[in-house]
Amino acid sequence: MLSTLLHGRWRARTAACSYRLFYIFITIGLLGMSADVLAHAVAEGDKGYIQEITGIKLVAFMYLGAKHMVTGYDHLLFLLGVIFFLYRMQHIAIYVSLFALGHSTTMLLGVYFDVGINSYLIDAVIGLSVVYKALDNIGAYQRWFGFQPNTKAATLIFGFFHGFGLSTKIIEYDISSDGLIPNLLAFNVGVEIGQLIALAMILIAMSFWRKTDGFFRHAYTANVAMMGAGFLLIGYQLTGYFVT
Questions:
Q1: Angle subtended by helix axes 151-172 and 119-137, to nearest 10
Q2: Cβ of 77: how many Cβ atoms within 10 Å?
Q3: Is the dihedral of CA 117, 120, 123, 129 positive or negative?
Q4: How far apart are CA 131 and CA 116, in angstroms?
């Protein structure tokens, strides 16, 4: 009896902690947006390094790619929305792979062919991807339009936009053409490593939360909060576009 009671209290406290971590994550994202309008901006020290570096520097670019993904709250918010109601690992792997395929393709091709998109507009679309996925999670499209959009196709398409957001930033920093392809591939490998690290942290927190009765009770509110973060990101980017 005592062990059962203690186990129940432990589960409740763990779930509450996971639930708080979700909102802390969103709050950090909102604070990050207020501190830096450009969601894909690279830290000043990293920016200077990217601009000055020449030759093949695989480890350095892997580190920069991983750092970008782990600190890229817009990527992580979208990824959180994608896996929010996915329970089986093979399903999570499929969607995460589609997202990775999308952003890897446009990041590499965008930089290689010098396809630049206005950073404010592309980041606004990335904010829209967060809003889209939050609405999808609460079943808005079925209620409003009577059909369910293809979730796999949406994940891939928005992955393309996320990749263009990153390629636009890299183009702006005008990195050296010496060793460009190997460095870009290393950067992309780092991005995927960072994505796996972030995904593992998200799944650990979500796994505790999902085991409680309160998960479905609070899932709607959580996705509304995520949608609010996406709208705020859109607002920041569009404001930046029209005032600059």
A1: 160
A2: 26
A3: negative
A4: 24
**What is the three-state SS of 140-168?**
HHHHHHCCCCCHHHHHHHHHHHHHHHHHH
Q: Which residues lie below 8 Å from residue 129, measured CB to CB, with a gap of 6+?
A: 78, 158, 161, 162, 230
Give me the tens of pLDDT residue by residue for the chain, a chain 244 residues long. 434 434 445 455 554 554 555 555 555 455 444 444 444 555 656 766 777 778 898 998 999 899 888 888 889 999 999 999 999 999 999 999 999 999 999 999 999 898 878 999 999 999 999 999 999 999 999 999 999 999 999 999 999 999 999 898 888 777 888 888 999 999 999 999 999 999 999 999 999 899 888 898 899 999 999 999 999 999 999 999 999 8
149 Cβ neighbours under 8 A, 6+ residues apart: 136, 141
SS3 110: helix
Burial of 225-236, coded b for 16+ CB within 10 Å and e otherwise, reads: bbbebbebbbeb
d(CA 45, CA 53): 12
Length of the chain: 244
| Residue 113: CB atoms within 10 Å | 10
> d(Cα 72, Cα 66) in Å, to the nearest integer?
10
Confidence (pTM) = 0.83
